Fold these 2 entries.
Entry 1:
Amino acid sequence: MISLTLFLLLLASAWSDNSTLPTEYHITIVPEFSDLTFTSETRITIVVQEAVSRLTLNSRGLEIQDPKVYNSAAEEITGVGFTRDTENETIEITFASDLEEDGIYDLVFQASGTINENYDGFYAAKYTKTVSGQKQERTILLANLKYYKARQIFPCFDDLTHLSTYTLTLVRPNDYISVSNTAKTSTADYDTNRSKDVFAPTDPIPPYELSFAVIDFVEEEFDGTTVYSVAKEDTQYVGELSSQVAQKFQELYPVKINKIHQIVVPDNTLVTNVVDNIGLIIYKESAVVYNEIRESVDDKQEIAKLVALSVIKQYQRESFEWWPNYWAKIGTLVSYQYEVLDQLHPTWRLHEQFVTEELLSLLEDDVDGRDISVVLPENQTPDVFTKSQLLKSFSFVRMFSHFPSPADILEDETNAAALSWIENKGYPLVTVTRTFNEVDNNITFVQGNLVLRSLPVNIVFENQEGDSNNFDFVLDRSEIMSNYRDYISSSWFTVNLERLGYYRVNYGTPNWRNLARFLMNSRNDIDTISPLNRAVLIEDAFYFNHMDRLPVTLYLELILYLKRETDFFPIYAFIKTANRIKSLLYLTSSAQTKFMTFATRLVEHLYENIGTSLNSTESHIDTLSRTKILTWMCSFGYAKCQEEMHALLSSGGSTHPDLQELVFCGGMRRGTLENFLFLLDQHMQRGKKRILRSMACTSDTEILRYYITAVVNESAIVHLKEHDRVDVFMAVLEGSDLGVEVALNFAKQYLEQILIKFTQEDIERMFIALSRKLISDPHQQTINAIIECLTDEQKVQYGDLFRTVTNTINNNKKWRSSNIGTIETWLDANEITTVAPGGENTTTTVTANNSTTTSTTTTPSPGGGAADLRISYTLFVVFLLTCIFSSTQI
Ligand SMILES: *[C@@H]1O[C@H](CO)[C@@H](O)[C@H](O)[C@H]1NC(C)=O
Ligand SMILES: *[C@@H]1O[C@H](CO)[C@@H](O)[C@H](O)[C@H]1NC(C)=O
Ligand SMILES: *[C@@H]1O[C@H](CO)[C@@H](O)[C@H](O)[C@H]1NC(C)=O
Ligand SMILES: *[C@@H]1O[C@H](CO)[C@@H](O)[C@H](O)[C@H]1NC(C)=O
Ligand SMILES: *[C@@H]1O[C@H](CO)[C@@H](O)[C@H](O)[C@H]1NC(C)=O
Ligand SMILES: *[C@@H]1O[C@H](CO)[C@@H](O)[C@H](O)[C@H]1NC(C)=O
Ligand SMILES: *[C@@H]1O[C@H](CO)[C@@H](O)[C@H](O)[C@H]1NC(C)=O
Ligand SMILES: *[C@@H]1O[C@H](CO)[C@@H](O)[C@H](O)[C@H]1NC(C)=O
Ligand SMILES: *[C@@H]1O[C@H](CO)[C@@H](O)[C@H](O)[C@H]1NC(C)=O
C-alpha cells in the first residue's frame, strides 16, 4: 500500500519577463453560432514591477482594435502605440512616457476571431441529438486552451507561469447553457434570443487552465460536482465516483477540492479521452459512461482510473510551475490515484494489477532499446508525455516513497539518488547469492550494470516475522555483502518485495530451488510468500532464463507448484511467461504441444473452480480472472474450453460483457466466417476493444489477412477508428501463431502505408512486439527485406529500432537452440498430478506427453486449399456487405 506524505510544492518563479505582472483578467466572449465567429472584450489588470515603456502580449488569429490603457484612477493614458507581429504571435504596446514602478494599470482590448471546426482551442463540433423522436444535428462550442491557445481568444500574457484570476462572461443562445471553471454568479438577457452568464473569479491560474463550453445538455447534481451530458444516460457512475474520490482524497490529505464541473460530450466532439482543467473536466462519452449491462469490470476499472486521476489533478492548483521535475509531480498524482482507489475498492486489488500488468509491460519495453526517459524535454509541455513515461514516473515515485523521507528525493531536483535513476536508461538487474555455514549467513548483492544507481533493497527470510514494507538499505556500490546471522536456518529469502524497486532480481540456484520446493510442499502455507511476490518470482525466473542467466528447468520447477495456486496474480504472471514460451516454441510442434498441455494441466483445476458463467456473489477479481485465465486456456488449445465457447458463440444469444472476450475469442478459435461477421456487427454496435481483440482469435488465415489490412486501409469493409488501429495489429499478432505470420507479411506488404500512417512511437511498439515473436532465419530475412525498402533517411530514423528487432530475433534463436531440447526432456520426465480443488489429493495422473491438444486450432493448418479460400472470400464480402447494410439501419 502506498502512503506518501503530501508535499506541497512551492511556486518556482522563472518568468521570462518580470517587469509587469498580470493579476486579473475580465473577459467577455460573444460567440455567433450562425457564422462561427466571436468577439471578445478583455480587461487585464497589471502591476508594474519596474518602470517600462513597452509591453508585449500574445495574440494569434485575432483582429484587435487599438487598445486603451487606464491608470488606477481610471484615467485613459494617451500616447499609446500599438503594433502586431503575426509571425511571433505577439502584439506590442508602447507608451510615450514610462508606466510607473508599482503602478496598477488596466489594458482593454476589443478583438474578434473565428471559431474553428478543427478541435483547436475554441472550436465548434456537431453531434446528433434525438429530440422527441426526431434526430437533429446540433452544434456545441468547447474551449480547450492547453497549451498556448488562450491567445486565440483574447490578447494575453500567454506564458504558462503567469498566474492570474479570470472572471469570464459568456453569451449563449437561450436554449443552451454555459459552463466554465467556476460557478455562475449571475445571468441576464443579452438580446431577445440570448443570455449573458457571469462566472465567479477563478483562483490564480495560468491562461491555459481557463476553459468553457456552450452546450445544449442536461445537468445532474452530485455531492461536490455537477455532471452535464446529452441525456443523463449512464453518467451516474462518473458523478458518484468523482464525488467519492474527492471526499476520500480530502479525508487522507489536507487539501481542498472546490466544486467540479464535469461535461460528458459525444465521442466525435473531443479528440482525447479527457481534458482536465481546474474546476472543469471534459470527458469523451465512450471513456466514462458506465452501464453494467454493457460495460465489463475491466471497463469499469478504466473509467474509475481516468475519473480518479482527473479529480486528483484538481489539486495541482498548488503546483503549476512543475515542469522541471514533472515526473515527480505527475508520478505523485498517480500514486494518490492508486491510493484513493485502493481505499475505495480494496477488492479490486488495483495495486497488484499495476505490478503484474503495467509495471511488467514497462520493464519489458524499457530494455528493448526504447529509451523511456521520464525527463520532460526543456520547453515542452506535459501533453508530450506518453503513457509509458507516466507509468515509469509513477514507478519511481512508488519506489522513492518507501525511503525514510520521500519528500527530500521528490522535491529536490538535484538529489543524487533520484538523478542516478532519471539520468540513466533502462533499469538494473541485481543478483543475490548466499554462502552460509553454522556461524555465517553471508548474502551478497550485486548490481550488474555499468552505471551504478542508488538501489533501495529489502530482503525477507523464510522464518522472518512480519512483512517489511520499507527498504532495509541502499545499495549504491556495485556489490555489498551482509551477514544475516539471525536467519541462518532459513531455507529461502526474497528480495525487492512486491517489486517496489524498479529492478529485477536473480538468485543463486539453491535459493530458486528452495523457493520452488517450499511452494510445492503441501504442508507449507504458500501465502508466506504473498501472491504478488509469487507473481514476481515467476516472471523474473522466466526473464532471466530468456537472458540466458538461468536454466529453464529452474523456471519449470518453480511453476510446478501452480497446481496448488488459486490466486489470480501468480497465475496471470505465469500466463504471460507461458505465452512467451509458446511463441518461442513455434514451429517445433512436438515441444510446443507438450508445453501447452503441461501449462494447461497446471491450472486446469481452475477451469471448474472459476466456472464459465457469472456468479452473483463473486468478487471483482473473480470476474476479471475468469476472462483472463479461461481465454488463455482456450488459446492454449484446452479442448473443453474451445468446445464450450464455440457452442455459446454459435448459439447467438446475448453475452454478458464480462463473458464476451472469453466466449467471443474462445469461440472464434473454432469459429467460422459467420461467427466473425457476428462479432463485427457486435463491434459496430458497441465499439469495444475486447470485440476487436476477439475477432483476431480466428484460425482462418484468409479472414485474418483481410482483417489486418483494415489497419491501414481506410476503405476496408471492417472500418477501424484511428485509435483502434494499433490495437488490431497487436491483437492479430498476439492472437495466435498464425497471426505472427500474417502480421509479419502485412508489415512487409504495407510498409509504405504503415510508415505514413503511424507515429514513430506506434511503429516502434508494433515492430518490437512483432520481434518478440520472430524466431527463425526466414523471419529475419523478411525483416531484412523490410529494412531494404526503407529510404536512407528512414534507415537513420529507424536504425535503433531495427537493431533492437534484429537483436531480439537473435536472442530468440539462441534461446531456442539451448532450451527446446531441455524443455522437451524435462516435460517427458515429469508427471503432472492434478490436485482436486477440494484439497483432497485424489489423483488423475497424466504424463506430460499424453497430448490431448493435437486438435489445437492455433497451428496454421494447410487445409482448405485455394478453391475453398476463394469461396470463403466471396462469401466473406457478401456477408460483410449484408452486415454493413443491416447495421446501418440500427
Ligand atoms: C524574475 O524573477 C525571478 C525570481 O524572482 C528571477 O529568478 C528571474 O531571474 C527574474 N527574471 C528576470 C528577467 O528578471
Ligand atoms: C520575431 O522575433 C524575432 C526574435 O525576437 C525577430 O528577430 C523577428 O524580427 C520577429 N519578427 C517580426 C516579424 O518582427
Ligand atoms: C431571435 O430569434 C427569432 C426567431 O428565430 C429571429 O427572428 C430574431 O431575428 C432573433 N433576434 C435576434 C436579436 O437575433
Ligand atoms: C562470511 O563473510 C565473512 C566476512 O567476509 C567471512 O569471514 C566468512 O568466511 C564468510 N562465511 C562464509 C560461510 O562464507
Ligand atoms: C458462487 O460463488 C460462491 C463463492 O465463490 C460459491 O460458494 C457458490 O457456490 C457459487 N455459486 C454458484 C451458483 O456457483
Ligand atoms: C482497401 O479496401 C478496399 C475495399 O475492400 C479495396 O477495394 C482496396 O483495394 C483496398 N486498398 C488497399 C491498398 O489494399
Ligand atoms: C495427500 O497428500 C499428503 C501430503 O502430501 C500425503 O501425506 C497423503 O498421503 C496424500 N494422500 C493420498 C490419498 O495420496
Ligand atoms: C511419451 O513419449 C515418449 C517419447 O516421445 C514415448 O516413448 C512414450 O511411450 C510416451 N508415453 C505415453 C504414455 O504416451
Ligand atoms: C491419455 O491418452 C490416452 C490415449 O490417447 C487416453 O485414453 C487418455 O484418456 C489420456 N488421458 C488423459 C487424462 O487425457
Entry 2:
Amino acid sequence: MKRALKAALLSRVLFLLCVFSTTRSQSCSSYTFSNNRLYSACTDLPFLNAFLHWTYYPSSGTADVAFRVNGVSISNWVAWAINPTGVGMQGAQALVAVQNSSGILQAYTSNVQTYETTLAESLLSFSVSSLSAEMSGNQMMIFATVQLPDNNTSVTQVWQVGPVTGGSPQPHAQTGDNLKSVGSVDLLSGQVASSGAGGSRETKKNVHGVLNAVSWGTLIPIGVMIARYMKVFKAADPAWFYLHSTCQTSAYIIGVAGWGTGLKLGSDSPGVVYHTHRNIGITLFCLGTLQVIALLLRPKKDHKNRFYWNIYHYFIGYTVIILSIINVFKGLDILDPTKKWKKAYIGILIFLGCIALVLEGLTWFLVLKRKKMAAPTPEKYSHTHSDIGGADEGNGYGI
Ligand SMILES: *[C@@H]1O[C@H](CO)[C@@H](O)[C@H](O)[C@H]1NC(C)=O
Ligand SMILES: *[C@@H]1O[C@H](CO)[C@@H](O)[C@H](O)[C@H]1NC(C)=O
Ligand SMILES: *[C@@H]1O[C@H](CO)[C@@H](O)[C@H](O)[C@H]1NC(C)=O
C-alpha cells in the first residue's frame, strides 16, 4: 500500500513538473459575440482554452467583462474570478456558470473561502451587475459588469473548468492546466502576466505534503513500533536501538525540511493562513527537536533519573505521533479537495495499525510465556513486564 502511495505521489509530482504546451485554437480578437456585445480589449488566457474580453470605464472604476471557454459541454461548469487578497483559489471572488438542476444555465457569484468549496452562491467583496451566462455550440460564456476592487486595473485572476453532477459543481481536476490557470491581467494596458505561478505553488505544496506525510506521518510511527516491538527480542538488542534512533533522526531531518517548506508557503501567501495547521506544525518542530536533544542527554540506564527520562521520552513521543497524524490530515484537507491522498494516507495508517496490533499481541504472548517459565520473583516480574514498554528498560539502551 505504501509503495502504491509513493508511486502515486511521485507520478503526481512529475506530472506537475512537466511542461505543457498549449495550442491556441482561436485568437480572441477574431471573435464576434452574437448579441452585439462589443469589448475594447481581449486576451487569450494561456490555459484551458479560455478568453477574456473587457471594456474598462475609468470614470466609474468598472469593467464590462466577458469570459469565454471553448471546448466544453453543458455538463461542465466554468468560472472566472478576481482574487483581491491572494494568488490562488482561496479568497477568489468568482463568477460561475453552471446548468442547475432545473436545466437552466445559471450565472451567479461565489466567494471562495476554502479549497473544499462547492461554489455555493454568495456575495462578493465588490459589486457585480448585469450577470448572465450563455452556451453557444461548445462554448460557455459569462458576462458581467464588475466594480474593480480599489479601482485597481491590475487584478489577479483565476479561471477554472470542472464537471457538474445533478446541477452542482464538482471539484475540478487537480492536475496540469487546471492548476496553472492563475495570473494577473491589467485591464488598462491589456498586459497579461500568466501563471505557471499556480502550478509551481501547487508543486511546492505537494513537496511539502509528501515530505511531512512521509516523515512525521509515517516514519516516526514506524520508528516507535521498532522500539516497542523489537525490544522484546533479546537477540535484537542493541540493534533495535540503532534502528529506532536512525529512523527517528532521518524522520526528523526530512520533517524539518518539510516544516521549512511549510513556513515558506505560509510567508508566500500572507492573505491565507491555516492557523491550526501552522500552530500544530510549530509545536511538532519544538517537540521533535526536544526529543533529539533528549536522546543526546539521556542518563545512563542505571541512573536514578533514567526512570523519569523514560516517562518523559514516551510521553513526548506519543504526543508527537498523535499531533503528526492530526496535522497530516489537516494538511491533506488543504492540499487535496478530492480526498484521494487522504484515502491513501488512511490506508497507510490502517496498514501500520494492523501490524502494530499483531505485534502487540505477539509481544504480550512472549512476555507472559517468559514470565511463566522464569521463577515468579517480584524482581523478575518487573523486569519482563518492562519489555512491553513500561518505564523501565531491559537493556543498556532503553529508550
Ligand atoms: C479610477 O482610476 C482612474 C485612473 O487612475 C481615474 O481616472 C478614475 O477617476 C478612478 N475612478 C474612481 C471611481 O475612483
Ligand atoms: C436555476 O436557475 C434559475 C435561473 O437563475 C433559477 O430561477 C432556478 O431557481 C434555479 N433552480 C435551482 C434548482 O436552483
Ligand atoms: C493593484 O493590484 C496589484 C496586484 O494585482 C498590486 O501589485 C498593485 O500595487 C495595486 N496597485 C494599486 C495602485 O493599489
